[in-house]
Amino acid sequence: MTGREPRNREAERTALRSAADRLLAGTPLRSETGRLTATELLRESGLRRDVAYGDHKDLVEEFQARVRAQNATPSAMRELADKYDVLKERLASVTEDLSKERAITATLRRIVAELDLELRQARDELAQSENVSTLPAPRRRAPRR
Length: 145
What we know:
By secondary structure, the chain is mostly helical. It has helices spanning 9-25, 38-45, 49-55, 57-69, 75-128. Helix 1 crosses helix 2 (38-45). The mean pLDDT is 85. It has 2 domains: 9-73, no CATH class; 75-127.
């Protein structure tokens, strides 16, 4: 004998209606995508597919009709999708700029390393040279008053 509680069909219907309202308003609690599909309706309501289509098919069809009447995307989700597209383009632009800056930085590091090497070599050659005499540093003149 199983110890299952009897199903509360009215609670199931309420769960489906509430899930439909949340999805259509663009404020889902369980749905990750917020898409207006029967699958997301079931995910949002927490009901199994066989339960929804077996006893509450009318509510699933009502939801699908409301979706068609609303052009398939809730306005809140459309706004989020638009913001996402803008941010995605901005990220691509910033990523491209960063890539260019990294290439420039790498080139500058190589130039600095090469100049440092040349400077060391010149100093070594100067130190080894016996024919070169060091000139005194120029004197500073007193500022005119």
